[in-house]
Amino acid sequence: YCILDEESKNIFKNAYEKFRYSARTYHKFLRVARTFADMEGSQKINKSHIIKALMCREIEKEQTTMVVV
């Protein structure tokens, strides 16, 4: 279901090790990346899908630390 090409696996592995994501977060990334792949009609999750999923996480973290005055 979530087929990654080699380049995507390496990017994902590096991010996973660098930021020490939990297993739950790892699976969230896969779901988001799979959604991006589906939107583009792609059978495999490629580099751009993984990068977009990782960027969504950073945006989400920034939004949760924002203080509304």
TrEMBL record:
Gene3D superfamilies: P-loop containing nucleotide triphosphate hydrolases (3.40.50.300). Residues 1-57 form the Mg chelatase-related protein C-terminal domain. InterPro entries: Mg_chelat-rel_C, P-loop_NTPase. Pfam families: Mg_chelatase_C. This is Magnesium chelatase.
